[in-house]
Amino acid sequence: MKTSKMTNGTASGQEGHVTILNWQGSGPRKTRAGTKKKSRMAGVKITQFTEDIPKGCSTPDFERKPIPLTIQEGKTAIFKAVPSGDPKPEVIWSRANGDMDDPKKFKFTYDKVLNEYSLQVIKANGDDADTYRCYASNEYGEAVCTVTLIIIELGLKKKTKPETNNAGSKDPTEFRKLLKKTTGTRVKQEKMSEEKMWELLMSADKKDYERICMEYGYTDFRGMLTKLNLMKKEREEEQAKYIEAISNLRHIQVNSEGSAEFEIEMELKDLNSRIFLYKDGVMIPYSIDMEMKHNLKKFGKKYIFSINSLMPEDAGLYQVDVESTNVFSTDLPTKFIPVNFASPLKEVKCKERDDIMFECIITHPLPKLVWMFKNKPLEAGEKFQFAVSEDKLTHRMVVKDVMPVDKGIYSVAAGIRSSSAWLLVETEESVDPSIQGKKKPKKGQAIDINAGLTNQPVDGILYNFLKSLGDGSGAGDGAGLGSGGQNSTDGLDGSDGLGKEGVGMGGKGGLGDGQAGQGGKGDGKGGMAGGKGGQAGLGDGKGSLGDKGGLGAGKGSLGGKGGEGGLGDGKGSLGGKDWLGELGDGKGSLGGKGGQVRLGDGKGSLGGKGGQMGLGDGQGSLGGKGGQMGLGDGQGSLGGKGGQLGLGDGQGNLGGKGGQMGLEDGQGDLGGKGRQMGLDGQGCIVGKGGQMGLGVLGDGSGAKAGSGLGDGSVLGKVGAGGLGVEGTGSGLDGSGLSGDGTGQGGLGRSGHSGSGGKDGSALDVSGLTDDQNRKKRRAGRSPLIEDTITEPVVHFTRGLFDIQARKGHSAELTCALSSAESDGTWFKDGVKLQSSEGLSICKDGSVHKLVFSNIQDSDAGKYRFEAEGHKTESHVVVTDPPEIDMEELARLAKEPLVVKAGQNAAIKVPFSGRPPFKVSWYKDADELSEDNRTVVEKGADHTRLLIGKCQRKDSGELKLKLKNESGTAEAVTKLIVLDKPTPPQGPVEVLDSSANRIEIKWRPPRDNGGKPIEKYILERQQVGRNTWMKMGEVPGDTTIFATDKVEQGKKYCFRIWATSTEGISDALETDDITAGTKAFPGPPAPPKVVATSCKSITLSWSPPHNTGGTRITCYILEKRKKGSSIWSAATEEPIKGLKHAVTDVVEGMQYEFRVAAVNVSGTGEPSIPSDFAFARDPMKPPGTVNDFKVTDSTYTTLSLSWSKPSTDAGDEAKGYYVEVMPEDSGTWLRYNSSPTNTTSYTIKGLKSMQMYFVRVIAVNDGGLGEPKKLDNYIIAMPPPVRPHFLNESSLKSFMVVKAGNTIRANINFEASPIPDVIWLKGGSSVSKRATITNADGLSQLLIPTSEHSDSGVYTIMVKNYFGQECFSFEICVTDDPKPPGPVELDEKVPGTVTISWEPSPDEKRDEQLHYLVMKRDSSKPSWHTVADNIFNNKFTAVIVSDRQYYFRVFAKNDIGISTASDSPAWGITKQKEKFTVKMPTYKQTDSRQAPKFTVRLKNHTVPRGYPCNMSCAVKGNPAPTVTWYRNNISIMDNAQYYTSNICGVCSMLISNVSTKDSGEYSAIAENCMGRAECTTRLNVTE
Question: Which of 87, 552, 594, 1128 has its CA 20 to 30 A from that of 1161?
């Protein structure tokens, strides 16, 4: 396969080769140079070959591109693509590795109806996992898209037995050589591991050094550090060649989506430097548009590499190189790759007391999975059993003795992935009431959990197959080895006997006729025959067992050359030369040279020299010298000297001297001296063909021993599909195969009916004794005839497709069969079809067609084609789009509708099609709507447009659009409305107004009325007179008129009419024109310098707009030196033209010029001076600018700077042009109309996040220099900034809002590029009532009317490519609290009273709600607070007897305080006894005392937003007055601080502290005796 290269045009990245393959792989595709073009579909690359594309044509593109697939091994992968383009593109498929030449593996199809191209990878395996490309190309360009195919290899595969290496047995020294090779390999692997360790260490953090060394078994840490520093220094020197700086190395990380990423930040010296990616030292390709498995994303200086769809083979060492220098290495261990389920658990249904099994297959090995039921892990025991395959991919669990309680969801976990499935248990209620409620008996068989997890020995296959032949209902009518269809998986089915006429085992792996799946049962005709067999199949042949991989494919017998496990492929015999499991190759007999399990190679007999299980080698008999299980060696019989399992040695019979399991030796019968498993009966094993060389058991009557095959003879009489011969008598009466005795289903030929055998189980060849083998003798033998030949099974090679056909057109359905001889039947909606008028059924070889010559609506429906049990279906959809007759379309386009102004216009267009229709009329692309003048009539088969009282503006193109469900149609015509022309256009230009002549000029009418202008009529009036005089006419193609009938100084006015066949226009009247009056011309335009040299300066100018009413005769050109104020004539003579070269100049001097126009009246005013021009040779254009770079950028602007170009490449620059080109455009746009003189410029008005290419062009008098372009595109965005919040310390973390008020939270942030802003409440989305407004650097949360449900923790998340930042704050929405419930008083302790109350209704929804208790006694009229900040519903107060007490309870929160809940009055009256006290006389003492703090204040540290309570105790007499100070300033009048003094206990409360509350606090107690002070300090933390 040849390949061709296509260069990857990215600015930076890894360049790769694109391999382009055609379908047959006949040669390379030629690549053409072109420009890259953006596709409307992501992942598609378009190359445009030509600059100009004709109108109506286009480059190819994809409307639908293929999608990546991950499938199991053995299934078919289908990629589909729908291209577009005009002309229609050619589609070609290719793959990155390998070719696509095998038509059996790769199939290419095209659906004309859907315009869909398909690639089928049939029975995909691991070698087909690759990157595939689809190319669509035409003459204008090429489009390409890429898709990947991933193959999941399943477990439980039969491993190939490794070939035995016999070299060691031949030469003992070879074993020593093998040991040396093994040692060398291990040393090499250790060396590779050490290199990998050093690569990882050079990119790892210091904290990971020890871990990496321990993983690789490296213990010399000190030596490691020394060597590592030297290696790092060397690598840094190499990196300095290409990299300015490198930082922020982030090693590989695996996410939950099954992909991995690692990133680095580096600044390249050259942005075009190539970047390579390696895995385990092998370079791997990557993409920058996320189309491949390995991808690179670049954001500024950050490079992010990603690996998608991780698989076990992705584990390894990944390295990033810039050019030839390594910059980063990271390791992806296998344990980091998440496990996927290639085959998840499936739902299981069973009956009560059965055993069931769950099975799953994972993508890479794990020794153990976690099985769970109802979220509880399961353990192995009597109830649950677990097993795992040798490759650790397949895991099983068996649930024993299932009961109804076991119903539910079972799951299995593999790492972070899990799979689950239902177990459904069907219960059966017993009919007998006496056993209801009892445990039902176990019915199901036990499940072998290890079945299929290990390989079955090959030696046991043949024995198991022989046993299965007898496990059924006998060889009766209708029974057989199964009738399997295509792709059946039933295998050998012994439950239905050994077959009837026309029925056998077939398909790949089956006995029968037709191509079938592995293990199919088949459908044979005439005998035990088969189609092309697959693995262990029983063949493909005509009346026989045959073909590759099966039991042979022969003509009339059991034979043919077989593949692995096959029974041969021959003509008329069971034979052939081949290996394991084949029956050999012979002619007319069962023979051949057999190897292991062979049946030999012979002529006319079942014989040959057999090895193990050979059938021997003989002539005319089943004989030969057999080894183990040999069939012997004899003449004319099944005999010979057999070893173990030998069939013996005899003449004309099935005999011989057999060993164990021999069939013995006899004369003319199935007998002899046999041991175990001998067969005894009359008849012999003869006949052409038989199951695995057994032939038939002949024509026995009443054989008792052995496994009876039943039905007449042992294998029957006429059993089409049988293997035996003619026989009579009754069937075998044994425990094996039995039947109904009809002989119809036997495996023999032309036998007579028997009396029927008994049903039995499997063939038990071990139950016969020597006596039983001799009881029955063979009665006779009929001559052998050939078996009936069966045909292979027919299948579809191409099925039907859905089609859409247009009504009245032709259409056809096509399918193809594998056989040209097969016929089929067509059906429509279940009704059989026959050829009829308009419908024909055709057959061309194997292709079958259903042709519609004139399809109608009645032909729509579902069609089916059936052939020999197979069918294919499709739908036919009949479309009937609107259609306009082609002659009508041509007439409308050719013949416009012409009407005169004021008349009505009507256009009728007939059409056909399926209603309903949408009818639309358009005029000049604008749809017409009905009004007073416009009416649209819509009929079933026509439409009419009526326009009343047409006007000139109604003229134009009229278009009709018809649309229904099937399509559209259009018709175009023109409407021309004729009218008189409009007046000629002014203003009138006076070409000449001399003393004796006036010449004027006008413009033609704007609208000629639909007819050409024939002539113009002119009249003149002298100003001051009332009469108009006709001056004459001029042709319609002339707009100039001159007259000499004028008098000098007189003023004249002219009128001009335009005439056509439709009438005369209105007149155009001129202004007054004076004849002979002097009118000087105006100034011309400033002269422009065309060219300069050292000897001349060439100038040009434009004539003046005001000519003075007469012709310009000449021009006067003047010059002036720079710095002078004197103008001088530049020429000696006036200049007639508009261009002149001034030669009167001095080299090196600067001049400016002006020009004046001259007419008959004289010289007019001079023009504005020109720019100064040097009298020198032309300048050279400047060179390219230097140091061109971007200095700043925003979302709408780019700031650029550069330095002046060098004068070595050109003359000095006078200015600069700045040009930009958007990414999606191919045109450079100049942003400054005039050159800028500075070396910096700011481009404004850019689109945010749009990519632009920028360049600067220097300019001077010599022209434009070469442009200087930035190497890469620039994105209109500020420099990258990781999101962060501004003034975060000042943001509030707690907000209290009264219910009903507005919640407004403004958060300022900074990030670039524009980040995504997400608001969350409690981890979920915010309420729909919330309005989020995001502006540049600001995000606002607004809830217009707050509710209690809006309380919670709000989080704002700001993220972009460079990171994310979050900020959380709490909002509490509350209201004035409702008062608490009734207040109750209770005395539990004498001298106290307990106040209790019902909680406020707001307590449940307001966490900050608390209570305040106030008290008043009968001795005082005022209320005072006894307790605050109570968060329960109870308080105990101290009371004094003989007083009445009253209490009030308030509810408080952050908003305010509720109304009071009053308690009933409470009082204790103490009964006093009367007593007399004799008061002693005491000396008067002074009890006054200065204040003293008994309990001092303590220091407090409180978080911001929390309450703070300070307290102390003071005593003194009289009671001191306590004053609180903060930083020596009294706070007694500050409402923020609540103070109290109760019985000398002084308290001060700050309900919500802030940072400003920090400081020193003091309490000063004073009375008449003195003063005391106590201080403390409050620290408020964030």
Answer: 1128
